[in-house]
Amino acid sequence: MGSLERYCDLGDGHCPATYAEARTKLREGVLALSPRLILQQACAAPDGSARLRVSAAYGSMSMSYIYDPSHEQLVSVQIFDDLGGCAGQGAGESSPGFGELPGFYGEDLPGCSFNYGDVEIPPECRLPEDWMHLDASTPRYLVNDAGQDAGALEDGAPYECIVAP
Question: What Cα–Cα distance (Å) separates residue 63 from each residue in 8, 149, 156?
Answer without folding.
Answer: 15, 22, 19
